[in-house]
Every structure is written in structure tokens, then in C-alpha cells.
Amino acid sequence: MTPQQPRSKAQARTITRRRFLALSGAAAIAASAVVVVRRATGKKTPSGGKPAASPSLAPAGARGGILRAYNFNAMVQDSLDPHLTQMGLVANMHSAVFSRVLRYEDERAGTIVPDLAESMPEQPDRTTYIIRLRDGVTFHDAPNYRVAYPKTAGRALTAADVKYSIERQLNKNSPSTRHFYRQGNWSSIDRIEAPDPRTVVITLKQPDAPFLSFLAGRHAFIVPREVVDASDQANTEVAMIGSGPFVLESREPQLAVKLRRNPQWFARDDNPGGAGADRPFLDGYDAFFSPQEDSFQRAAFERRLVDTTGFGDGAVLDQERKTNLADIVLEETDAGTVLASRLLLDRAPFNDDRARRAIHLAVDRKALAAALYPDVDGRASARLSGPIAPVMTRWALAADNLAKRPGYRNDSGGREEDLRQARQLWAAALGGDRPIGEIRVLCTGIPKIIAERAMPALQRQLSDALRVTITPVVDPSGFALIASALGRNIEGATEGVTQFTLAMEDGGADLDDWLYPQFRSGQPMNTYRLQDPQLDALLDRSRAEFDEDARRKIGIDAQEYLLAKVNARIEYLAPVERRLTWGYVRNSHQPLPYGSDEQLADTWLDTSHPSWRLRPV
Q1: Please, which of 193, 291, 326, 357 could form a disulfide with 201 given CB 3.0 to 4.6 Å?
Q2: Rounded CA gap, 68 and 304, in Å?
Q3: For 396-418, what is the mean pLDDT?
Q4: Is residue 159 part of a domain?
Q5: By the 8 A CB rule, do 108 and 100 touch?
Q6: Residue 320 and residue 343 in one domain
Q7: Is 440 found in the same domain as 308?
Q8: Nearby residues of 12 by Cβ (< 8 Å), 6 or more positions away
Q9: Per the domain annotation, does 359 fall within a domain?
Q10: Under 8 Å CB-to-CB from 235, ≥6 apart: which residues?
């Protein structure tokens, strides 16, 4: 793993007003009237209260314009390499730049469709997958790519690229082998053949129920061999040569990611839902790093210097929406991420399952949610979460199940019992009712509300319940330091690793994405050094079970076991993501997961919308 550190303190801080103006080429921001919308239900709802129309079809001549947004896509990452990163946020850029063999059309429903493949794989038997690739797929062609990789820019993507992209992650002799975090997805493969440039044949050692989901996974991108260096990494901007709808123009960590239209995209003339041809409709997409200052974001949004933004404080968003302007919409979705803590299990105190269980029981998750994500106009801004985010209803524990469980219940009797048990377990783990020394918690610094709100609440709760001293260590990069520390956990370092983290974590669309790589013994994302034969058996069974109902039952059993017996990762909550978007942004998507920015290919800017005339070009 080669974490990318900020080049300077100036680069590491949130984007400044002057820097934003320079990046966007916009005029000066001035305070203006408050702009708000009404609540969205399901899709988008205009502030006037009428249901939003179905996704609008792009009319002739709709192509053009740069979509501008505030988000965290420019956060410093552990690696830019699509196969080496642990982060979901970098997958936003990757999903716009690279392509997959298959892709999820709907993660909630589990609907998988072809991407690079011209059709779903043929399966003559349960261990053979024959993939026919689309004709006319080429890698991005841009001047900087021609200079750096003249043999790659513009060349045809072939079956050899698919074969290489999977096999590199299985190479045990690679210097990066410990950090191919999804290599377990491909472990059932016996061999991959490319009999001709457009055909890939994958033969498995044994049937693997989630294998199609692996081909469509959030990080299952196809890369050209030429961009990978001698250390088996593709960790530079110029190595981001994909075949997706957008080309990476520039990336400045903690400042901005700029993507531009790929006119040679292989799916440009596809006609999904009658949306038209010549996609992407946008000329580009600028993702500015969120300043995390609501007053600044409001001013930029009101002046249309950004077309869409979220807010750190739900009360600000609530205030905004109550002005009831009809030309702005509120987009809302339950997030596919969870706030969680990872514990290190091979040394005191967390090598004792009683200590881990005590932490699980001592945390008041509902109070934590209230501190971090206050309700908006009586509507929840966070959900209790188990090992799988609740939005993944096919696989997750039901909300009413969680609310009754020890550690999640909040009624006075249940809460008191949880605290009593937590104190007893903690004392037993420590060998007596005495305070333990300092526990350092490595906490993400982005979004800053986790360090500013969640961390103090967690400190108070554990201090009051267990008399434990929690010392926060904030990762100013957001995740790079945490990734480095967790990487050392995997490598077996005995010093300098983190025993307790606090950060947002994402999973995927399939049951396997959330559980197998995280908790199976020996898997690269098992940073806890967890080894549990009973859990391993459950996770292995889930891969062998093709009946979805039976597989879901196995997944529920595994989650029940994790909560009752393991507690290697303490899950707290999953946020409800909300953002405001100007009405001239058509076919706008509030994605459930990270890694869905390829959907921007169907977004377009409606220049006939009344609010468009006030937007700086």
C-alpha cells in the first residue's frame, strides 16, 4: 500500500474561497436570499410539493455544459489504483473513467446488466463463464496519455485486458499482493483463457454463487497492463486510462477532480429508456472538495457556482428547504455506508471477547446518531446499522430486529441492562474493576462532523460507562493514515498499528461484499486479525448456496453471530444522504453507493429552465 499524503498543509486543508473561485473560474460569491426545497420522497420532489416527473429524456441538442458539485471525491486516497484502494470515494472517479465486464443497474434489487460484455455471460455449466465483449471498445485517447503511454491511448480493449485485470489480483508473487483487497473474489478461479480478442472464458474450481456480482463489483474495473509499474501499481493520474464515459482531466487532492466527456465511449449510442444517443450529454463534471462550511456552501449554491451540494448540518438544509422555491429539488437516499469502529484482536484489551462485547454494549447508538445526524423536520437522518447497511434490505438485519437487540435498544430497562452487562464484562476482561490506561482511537477527519461530533460523544459514553480514557487521533487526510495503519495490521506489524478506529465504511451490493472479505480468516480486508472457524464455515456456505432465500438465511445467521459472539467491528449507524440540486439538472442521480458516477452519462443541463439564466457559464 502506498498512501498518498498531502503535498502540503495548504493542500490538505479544505478548499478555500479564493481557491474555489480560481478552480471554477466563477465570479465572486456574495450573500444572497436563502434557497430551500421541500422533502423528497423516493425520487426527487420539487419544493412546491408536486411529485417530480419521471427522469426526463434528453431532447435533441441537449448535450453540453459542465456539471459542478460539492462532495468528497477529491479526498486524499490510499491509492489511485482501482485494484489496490480500500476507499469507496475514489471509486466515484474510477466508475466514470473505467468500465467493468458487468455492472449493477440497481444495487438494491441486485439487477446486473452487461457493461463491456455484449450480453450476460454464457454458462454451459456451473463452473464455466463465457464472456463475449462488445465491439468497438477503446481506451481513452488524450494528449497526456499519448505522451505517457503512446501504445495504450486509443487502442482497442481486448480479452487480454480482462484476463490481466483479474489475474494480477491473484498473483501471489506481486509486491502488492497483500493489498489486492478483493483478491478473495477471484479465489475460486481455476483458469482464465482468451481464445480470441473478444472472448474470455473463466473456469472455476467449484461453483461460486456471487461470481456474477464480482464481475459487476464496485472495484471490478478493467485496466490496461501498460499503465501498471514495476511495483505492480497504477497510482498516478496519468495511469487512469479507462474506457468509461468520462476522461480524467485533472485531480488535485483536497481541491477538485475534473472529468471530461469521452466522445468515443462504446455506449454513447445505447438507448436506455429512450434517453437518446450521443452520451454522455455533459461536456464534463467538476467535483469540488466540500468546504464543510455551510454558509460558504449556501452562498456558492445560491449563486449557482455549484449545481448540487449537501450540508454538514441537517438544520441548515431544513431551513433551506422551507423557503419552498419550486426550481430546486431535494435528493435523498439511505446511504450504503456505515459509521463503524475496527478493533485489533491480537493484544489487550481486545484479544478478550468480553472487552469487545463491553464496547458494543456501552455505546448508545441512538444518542450518537442524534449528536451526529439530528432529525430533519421530524424525519430521521440516520438508521441503526448492523454489519450490513440497512438500505441493503435483501441482506441486512431488519430495523425492528436491531432495535430490540442488546447494544441497540434504547428503552430505559434495556439500556440499563446493557450498561450493567458492559461494566461487568469490562471488569472481567481487565481482571478486576479498575480503569484501563489510554485507548487511542484513530478517527477520520473527513467529513469533519465525525471528529467534531461523533468522537466527543463516543468519548463521553465510554468514559461514563467503563471509566476508560479515549484519546482521539484525527487523520487530517481523511483516510490515508487510517489505511496505512490498517495495512500494517494486515501485514502483521507488532508496533505502530491502530487498535481502534472510527470512520465511515462501505460494502457493496451483494451479501458477500459486506461479510466475506471483511471477516473471513486470511482475507485482505480482515484487519482485525480475526480467526473464527465457525464464522468461516458460515461464510463459505454462503458462497456455495445459489438459492437466494437460503443464502439470505445464512447471511442473517452470520450477522447474528458477529453481533453476539465476535464484535471485531462495532457498527453504529448509517446516514441518510441529502443534497440540494437546481432543477435545471435533469436525470440527476443521488447514488446509493460509492462507485456509481457512470450514471452521470445520462445527466443533462436544461438551458430552458428558468433558473438557468442566472447560472455563471
Answers
A1: 193
A2: 9
A3: 92
A4: no
A5: no
A6: no
A7: no
A8: 6, 76, 253, 254, 476, 477
A9: yes
A10: 2, 4, 79, 80, 81, 84, 229
Pick the closest to residue 340 from 373, 370, 374, 363 (CA basis).
Answer: 363
- Cell readout for 528 is 482485525
| Same domain membership, residue 498 and residue 376 | yes
pTM, to two decimals: 0.89
Question: Domain residues for 293?
Answer: 1-74+251-327+583-617
User: 3-state DSSP call for residue 484?
Assistant: helix
Same domain, 320 and 362: no
For residues 422, 449, 525 and 501, what is the CA-based torsion angle, rounded to 10 degrees? -40
Q: Check whether residue 292 and residue 434 sit in a common domain.
A: no
- Residue 392 sits at the vertex; the CA angle it makes with 390 and 397, to the nearest 5 degrees, is 50
**One domain for residues 410 and 299:** no
In a domain, 557, yes or no: yes
Q: Residue 244 falls within a domain, yes or no?
A: no
Q: Can you read off the three cell numbers belonging to residue 200?
A: 474470455
Yes or no: say if 210 and 545 are a contact pair by the CB < 8 Å rule: no
pLDDT tens sequence across 94-120: 999 999 999 999 998 999 999 999 999
Sign of CA dihedral 307, 313, 316, 318: positive
- At 2, list the grid cell: 502506498
Q: What is the DSSP letter of 412?
A: H
Quote the pLDDT of residue 407: 95
